[in-house]
């Protein structure tokens, strides 16, 4: 005698092809995000390195090191600000009179800091893109696994009335 109420494994009635495709696209997209992030990181590092900027001895960290990454770029931008403020008597570019000779120093310092901060932001975007790539790969893999998982249907017999 067979038990009609036994658990059975049934394949999904709905087609899961689209779910599988989305999973594969997620994995491919994640790989591409990570690849682009790595290429951008290398590009920014190459450009910073080509500038041959050395962190001065009075910086808060990385004294004497070449600016080649986000931390050294941030520290270099900070020390440029310190030096510019010393040269302008503590005034920013906007605070200086238009005929003040120190204004060009403040302007150059501002431009240099903005460039260095742009590279710091670029590194952050690279890290964000790589993290999103890892998440996309994980979600894509999970969708593929879910689409391939059989559905277990539990059947319970109706209780007979006494």
Condensed summary:
With 162 residues, the protein is mostly helical. It has helices at 17-50, 70-87, 103-148, and strands at residues 8-10, 151-153.
Which shape, going by the Cα principal axes?
rod-shaped
Average pLDDT confidence is 89
Q: N-to-C terminal Cα separation, in Å?
A: 23 Å
Query: Helix fraction?
Result: 55-70%
Residue runs with pLDDT of under 50 for 5 or more positions = none
Major sheet characteristics:
2 strands, antiparallel
In percent terms, what proportion of residues is strand? under 5%
**Which structural class should the secondary elements be placed in?**
mainly alpha
| CA gyration radius, whole angstroms | 30 Å
Strands of the largest sheet, in order across it?
1-2
| Domains (count) | 1
**Number of distinct helices:** 3
Order of helices and strands: EHHHE
Topology, number of strands: 2
Structure commentary:
- With 162 residues, the chain is mostly helical.
- It has one domain.
- The chain contains three helices and two strands.
- It has a two-stranded antiparallel sheet with strand order 1-2.
- The chain starts with 7 loop residues before the first strand and ends in a 9-residue tail after the last strand.
- The relative contact order is 0.21.
